[in-house]
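User: Please predict the structure of the protein below. I'd like the answer in structure-token form so I can feed it into my own downstream comparison script.

Assistant: Understood. Taking the following sequence of 527 residues as input:
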Amino acid sequence: MKRIIAHIIFITLATAVLSQNIPVRDPHFIRDIEKSLLSLDKKQHSAIKPYYFTDYKDVCVDSAQYEKSFLYYGWKSKPDKKPSSFYALPVYQVFNWFDDDFDYRYNLHFGGLFDCSLGEKFGVSYQLSSWILDVPDYQKEKLSSTIYYNLGKALPNKNNILIENDIHITYSPYSFLKLELANSKIFYGDGYRSFLLSDFASNYPYFKLETSFLSIKYSCVWAVHKTISANPLENYYKNKFDVFHYLDWKIGKRFHLGLFEAIITVKDDFFDFEYFNPIIFFRPVEFSLGSEDNALLGTNMKFIINDRNALYGQFVLDDVIVGQLINDIRHNVNPDYTGEYGWFANKWAAQLGFKSYDIFKLDNIDFFTEINIARPYIYSHSISKQNYSHSAQALAHPLGANFIESVSGISYLGKRFMVDAKLMYAIVGADSTNTHFGQDIYKPTMDGNQGYSYIVNSFGNTILQGIRTEMITGKIDIGFILKENKNLSINLGLLMRYSNPEIGQTTSQNFVYFGIKSNFVKREMLY
């Protein structure tokens, strides 16, 4: 029965070739969309990504994305026939890296983007990428040197070669409804980081139902993630089936309120029937059925100051008892407080940020800054495979938990020149091999003696407990577009990373890189 339901969903989407929806991949267009959404007259929503051309036709059109490519093949139907199109173009990045000791590294990426649409309701977008990498060790997962952040697991017996498939099959039977079958990733939020669901992990298959009505946009996602054991002796790599709900409500002209729910299941074969409930906050219902699932609740907020500036923020709850949370507040106000505080399962994270476009009225110069705080043990679970991760990569913040972070950036996207500079400063309460102070989300988390090689204290847990580690990561990338309005640039960049734990060795790495790329390649390095 379960397989029949899955086949019906797939066949329905695959045969409904009636019409289009193509994701926006060009960073210039993404920037234009986000800036335009600060207009008080706009009804669209900025917190659900990726964006699609059919939702933002007044800002950009899909054909311009392909025609900016240095090389492309394009086909369009004749004006007297049903609108349809097909485009194919190369996607590439060839970078050479040198570290402090002039040791040579490389980053080679070759692939293609193939987009097909029929009308404005149906679209297929497929990006195939092959990577050959020799990158800094911090860009690999510590549990497995064959897992690369943002990209996933290397090919068997080829530790530095990866194949990435990014596909979106999207159908909108009505203007207010979008159905999507994809192997990609989703980002919820208005900031650089997201505590809800970010694009830090590698691609994963999902089915999304998205609807818009009045001033509300609502997204339901059923996703398949991979879980990897934190214990090398167990060596498992299994499926887990997860559900995400996000409702974004524009209240008045200036304020957006987003409500979020995530359910991380114990299932490793398929969803149970109750998981297909598309209604947000069904956690109390499935909990009443005796569920052991891991659940997160959160909110995303944005306040528009004017047509160039906005404040944004997030707050996420993993587990909490209000009485224990009040005790934490009492302890913070009065350090001499003698009652119980710091319950290990009071798990929350918060974000506050500011973004500005055309800062100081200088065209195309944008700025953002944000503070991110995460309590110990958030995103972890008593059952390790139910943590908030995919293929040993965080589904939310790349630092995991138990940290305070400041991250800022300034960028310039001109017709010929591009400059992108970002700086992260963080203090992390890190874990060691035989300790669990709350930073490592892959370790099972339960207070008392559970047979692990470490003990999680029931009380007295505070942010930054553990091995206090100072981290600084900075990047500046300078690009020159070889031909105006074309997607081919030569780039020169500097990457710097510094880590200073109070116990252990201080590390400092500096890298210079240069090469050519198309702007459809995005790989995050700031963590």
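That's the full token string. Residues 2-15 form the longest helix (14 residues).
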